[in-house]
Amino acid sequence: MDSPEPFKNNNNGSSPSSAPNSNNNSPDSPQEESPFCRYVSSLSPINIKASHGTRSFVGLSSPPLVFKSPRISHRATQFMQRPQGNQSVSEVRSQSENGGNILGEASGYYLKSNSHQPLPERFTTDTQKVFDPKNDANMQHYGGHLSIYKYLADPGDIDQMYSADQDVEQQSTDAAETSVSYPTQSNILNIGRKEGLGDKAEEYLPLSEDSNKVHQQMPVYGEEPKRMEGEQSDVEKRYSHDPLLPQSTLKSNDVGRRRLQFEEGASSAPESKKSHEKLNATSSLYPQQGCGNLPLPGSKPSGIGLHLNSIVNAMPTNEAATTGVRLPDISPRMKSTSSERLQRRENMKGSMLSSNVNAESSVDTRTESHEIDATDAGNSAEFNKTPSPCKKKKKTSVPSNQDGCKGCRCKKSKCIKLYCECFNAGVYCNGPCGCQDCLNRPEYKETVMECKQQIESRNTENSARLKRGCNCKRSTCLKKYCECYQAKVGCSSGCGCQGCKNSYGKKEDYVAVQHTWNIERMSGNNQEMVASETDYDLRRFSPITPSLQCPDQGKEAAKSRVINMFASCSNNTQSSQDETVVTDEMLRNDSYDSEIECNNAMLLQDTLPSNPSFSYAANQWKTVSPSPFSREPIRQCPGSDCTPFNMIVREIHEASTLMTSVKVNSPSQKQVSPPQSGLVIGSGSSGGLRGGRRTILQSVPPFPPLSPCVDSKINNNKDLGNSQSKDPHCPSR
DNA sequence: GAGTTTGAAACT
DNA sequence: CAGTTTCAAACTC
Questions:
Q1: Omega prior to A354 cis, within 30 of 0
Q2: Residue spans with biased composition (Low complexity) (predicted)?
């Protein structure tokens, strides 16, 4: 193809399509005069200095990528792509004028590489390009800005991102950095906002849809500028709303029936107009487009959505090589790993990489589209059309309102029990609802609040005994009766299902991976660890939604994890093929465990909240060898505490303690919401982090606290027994 | 569209 | 805390 060279350093303000310069090695090259080039040149593969922008994020408590869901991944993927689709001519020009054009070029490159080649070839090509040592540095820098935004740019977090953008931009004195930084989301958002686009609920298309559409419709960069601009406008329109496109959109739409989802309602509020002006407030409100809003006083803890049972799966997620190898089978959940990987690396190294992630991203998205088309057309269509947090229903007998919310049809619950989806979703019933004797209406605000409080307290009290996961007995987890299946996630050992045949991952598969995990543990030659961790059976914190989406998960998954781990150690200068080969070798290498564990630990470190108490090991890592494939450990663990399992245990324990202290109990304990953990960007309760894929598993506080402090809440719990009976409106059965 | 099945929520 | 009932969605016909 004759598209622009991917990573030229365009310092002369030329457009990306002009004067392609694939070789910046010329000593006379003006690029090397630029601060950016000097910066890039100063970068070593491993020890990457933190730029302004990077530093801003390195300091971040890395959003626990474990908690990121495939949906988020979709979103992230989308954001990855966004530069392509949104890379308008003017925008590129602007970047060029600022002295850096990496983003535009990367976008062009990305589009190019993503366009016509058959997948395997394309992947290889991409990967090779990606790991071009020369380009890598650029991409690191590029990724330093972009990738972090990609992942911080969860639509629900756009506000924070936006804020962060400004912050970073103010700090940045490097023209090159500024020029390449975050032209994407925030600008897009601003554009959308400036355009005064409406924020009808129906425009809140799930990102996956956007992603797919954008991806599918996106022309090759430079191919049809006008058309692309037109499409960009469309994209911008959508994204102008996406920021507040709630996790809950998926959550409430995609998931099980009667899990507490009030929090989702809060976080899902598509309140685009005011979004970035109230970073913290948004998540504690309930503005649900079209479905009424439930007033929720007070703030709620962060909805980080610590899906503890994702830890195991997230830690060893497959890396680039794996993606390439297993691309055809990539599952929605596995796809999430691309974003996780990127963020993980960002967090780990403080440097951003990464073209390979970009390549993966493109692949992922494409694959997603195919997958949706091929295997889940019905669901995806349904999902993609989900316009609002109101649950989608297969049945359409209940007329939808303009927002597409079909409402509930409760007859006896009076819509103030979790049976009611509106209530459960934290929205008032309204027009399209076919409910009877509905009390879930603004005029019964008090009643609604009381009932919510009741449920909250009840769930808090009973949470310990609530089961995690589904408990299907007859559906074999193959029907939507199964909440795991409905959420398109596999069952875990935490599920109480019988005869599980969940096509997204059987419980048995999860156990198999867990077994692998245990083997890895044991091979770490840390008896102390094993002994001390016995009490902390991972299954107690087991993923409700294991990332086992493929039928061949077991050993394959384990292998993938090894691949990923090594990939994590990689300085990203190896091709995916090399990684695969070497990984096979590593699999036979007894010495890989230390690396695995170190990497696991690193990954875990990144997956867990960066509360100061969680960062004990972060600074203890030291790079020993730049080569991920040497038999020498790449990173050395200073002590047994660095074993991943110890870390998991400790982290979980601390998290659990904190969660208890903040009283963020998931009604079903399918998820836990870790406390707000020192996020640098944004202090919003849920802003900086993304929820889990399973909407019902999403974070947490089932109800926003009605009282300002925990103590009072506890007291309330004591009184709830009385209030429960006192409440004339809350039907007690 | 009615009836049945299902599993979670609610209750005892 | 196990068992039962209630409930509404999912499913079937």
A1: yes
A2: 9-34, 666-677
**How far is the C-alpha of A724 from the C-alpha of A722, rounded, in Å?**
5
The three-state secondary structure class of A306 is strand
Question: Nearest nucleotide by C1' from A731 CA?
Answer: B10
List bases, strand C, within 7 Å of protein CB: 1-2, 6-11
What do you get for the CA distance between the two ends of chain A, in Å? 69
Q: What is the DSSP string of A96-147?
A: HHTT--HHHHHHHHHHHHTTSS-HHHHHHHHHHHHT-HHHHHHHHHHHHHHH
Mean pLDDT of A646-663: 41
Instruction: Identify which has the larger pLDDT, A259 or A109.
Output: A259
List A622's β-bridge partners, or say none: A636
Nearest to A98 by CA among A218, A180, A184, A204: A180
d(CA A74, CA A530) in angstroms, rounded, equals 36
Please, are residues A152 and A164 in contact by the beta-carbon 8 Å criterion? yes
Element of type H or E holding A294: none
- Secondary structure class of A197 (helix, strand, coil): coil
**How far from the centroid of its chain's Cα atoms is residue A553's Cα?**
22
Closest CA to A508 of A472, A449, A551, A567: A551
pLDDT tier at A522 (50, 70, 90 boundaries)? low
The C1' atom of B5 and the CA atom of A157 lie apart, in whole Å, by 41
Q: Could you tell me how far CA A23 lies from the centroid of its own chain?
A: 35
Owner of token pair 């009605």: A706
- The mean of the pLDDT values for chain A is 44
A393 CB below 7 A from strand C atoms: yes
Please check whether strand C approaches the CB of A409 to within 7 Å. yes
pLDDT digits (tens, 9 = 90+) for A314-354: 333 333 333 333 333 333 333 333 344 434 443 443 333 33
- Tokens, residue A393: 């229903």
What are the Cα distances from residue A513, in Å, to A349, A531, A556, A617?
A: 27, 20, 9, 25
pLDDT for A40 = 54
pLDDT of A590-636, one tens digit each? 333 333 333 433 333 333 333 333 232 333 323 333 333 333 333 33
- Whole-number distance in Å between A584 CA and C9 C1': 47
* Contact (CB, 8 A) for A555 and A519: no
**Do A232 and A86 contact (CB within 8 A), yes or no?**
yes
pLDDT in tens, A481-509: 887 887 788 887 777 788 888 888 877 66
Does any strand C atom come closer than 7 Å to the Cβ of A411?
Answer: yes
Residue nearest to nucleotide B1 (CA to C1'): A397
| Residues, CB < 7 Å to strand B | A 256-260, 397, 417-419, 455, 458-459, 466, 470-476, 479, 481-483, 667-668, 730-733
| pLDDT of A723 over the 60 cut | no
pLDDT, one tens digit per residue, over A113-139 is: 333 443 333 333 333 443 343 444 443
